[in-house]
Amino acid sequence: ELDLPSVPPTETRAEAAPVVVTLAPNPLRAGQEFEIGWPGPPPAPGATAELFDMAGRRVGAADLVRNGDGWRARFTAAVTSRLPSGVYFARARVAEARALRLVVLR
Questions:
Q1: In Å, what is the CA distance from 90 to each residue of 1, 10, 49, 101?
Q2: DSSP tag of 28
Q3: H or E element: which one contains 19?
Q4: Cβ partners under 8 Å of residue 49, min gap 6
Q5: Left (φ > 0), alpha (ψ -120 to 50) or beta: where does 77 sit?
Q6: Backbone angles phi, psi at 83, to 5 degrees
Q7: CA 83 → CA 14, 32, 35, distances in Å?
Q8: DSSP track, 78-91
Q9: Burial environment of residue 36 by CB neighbours within 10 A (0 to 12, 13 to 18, 19 or more)
Q10: Distance separating alpha carbons of residues 38 and 23, to the nearest angstrom
Q11: Which 3 state secondary structure label does DSSP give 14?
Q12: Would you give the DSSP letter of residue 13?
């Protein structure tokens, strides 16, 4: 018979439910503004949306603000007009939940 020490159960974190965000328009042209929509309950303070290039550099950020029954982050024409054509990633982040969308800039 083996005398094994008592091991406490491993603490696990529940995975956050997937969040589906909207992004419009997509694809877009340089100098055109776009929005990321976050559905549902209010996000935590400091909720943001960020725009990254393919190298992982953050090239833009916007706060999520109330919009009807959801939330949105607006990236202005000033942000997109300085970016070259290409593929970008838009990430909305609220507390532990994150959502990522592909953005095509023509």
A1: 57, 34, 7, 5
A2: B
A3: none
A4: 36, 38, 61, 62, 63, 64, 73, 75, 90, 91, 92, 93
A5: alpha
A6: -100, 140
A7: 38, 11, 16
A8: HHHHTSPSEEEEEE
A9: buried
A10: 9
A11: coil
A12: P
pTM of the entire predicted model: 0.77
- Looking at residue 44, its amino acid is A
Judge whether 1 and 36 are in contact, CB under 8 Å.
Answer: no
Please enumerate in sequence order all residues whose Cβ is within 8 A of that of 87, keeping only pairs 6 or more positions apart, or say none.
Answer: 54, 102, 103, 104, 105
Helix (H, G, I), strand (E, B) or coil at 77: helix
Tens-digit pLDDT string for the chain (106 aa): 545 455 455 544 445 555 678 889 999 999 999 999 888 766 677 788 999 999 999 999 999 888 887 888 999 999 999 999 999 999 988 777 788 899 999 9
Token duo for residue 96: 């532990």
As given in the structure block, the two tokens for residue 69 are 């029954």
Phi then psi for residue 12, to 5 deg, are -120, 145
